[in-house]
Amino acid sequence: MADTRTSIVDATDRLLGRHGYHRISMADIAQEAGVGRRTVYVHFRSREDVCLACADRIIEELHRAIGVIAESKGSPKERLRKMLCTRVLFMFDRAQDNYQKYLDLFIAIRPAYLVRREEYIEAEALRLQKVITEGIRAREFVTANAPLTAQSLILATNSLMPFTLSPRQLQSRKEVSRQLEHIVNLLLNGLCIRP
User: Fold this and answer.
1) Are 184 and 84 in contact (CB under 8 A)?
2) FRET partner for 112 with CA separation of 20 to 30 A, picked from 45, 135, 141, 157?
3) Structure pTM?
């Protein structure tokens, strides 16, 4: 059952890449996945639902990546730096070949996506908050409100997420990395205790 659901999401992802959101139907998804239309409806209520599952999968991959960093060795400052950079560059790299596909998709399903986006950000913030709390205990960070700090770090680095970048900026990972390092340094300097 999970394999069928995965096949349907994989098929939808391929179709989105070839045709975009507005030019695919549930019948197209079923055909691409090699299943009947009814089978698609067993797993998903609508085309929007299947496409949201595509977005969920990307965010789950991102959360796994930053979760690994959160649990790794290293100082809280270095783990937090790496988590913030990874969240932006992960999405930047994903958008390189699929920018227009994802832009069209997110415009089409914006209201439903925004509800999910709040959940995504909350889950990321919890991972950041854990490292921030460790940094407070280790006397590396000073903040009166770790949850708000985590949320603020996410919002600040969102300025370099692919959906906010111009087509020119999307062509320069080096430039985005440089700007990201600068922003992260400013953020961490504000959070770190001075010797």
Assistant:
1) yes
2) 157
3) 0.86
Q: Are residues 57 and 147 in the same domain?
A: yes
CATH code for the domain of 134: 1.10.357.10
Same domain, 109 and 122: yes
Q: Let me know whether 81 and 107 are in one domain.
A: yes
Domain count, the chain: 2
Backbone angles phi, psi at 145, to 5 degrees: -145, 90
How do residues 48-68 score in pLDDT, each as one tens digit? 999 999 889 989 999 999 999
Q: Which of 155, 166, 162, 150 is nearest to 89 (CA)?
A: 162
- Residue 3: give the domain boundaries: 1-44
| Contacts with 183 (C-beta within 8 Å, 6 or more apart), sequence order | 156, 157, 159, 160
Report the run of H or E that residue 165 belongs to, with start and end.
Answer: none
Q: What's the rounded Cα separation, in Å, for the pair 14 and 139? A: 48
As a whole number of angstroms, the distance between CA 69 and CA 53 comes to 24
Q: What is the pLDDT of residues 73-106, one digit of tens each?
A: 999 999 999 999 999 999 988 887 677 777 777 7
* Burial tier of 178 (Cβ tally within 10 Å: 0-12, 13-18, 19+): exposed
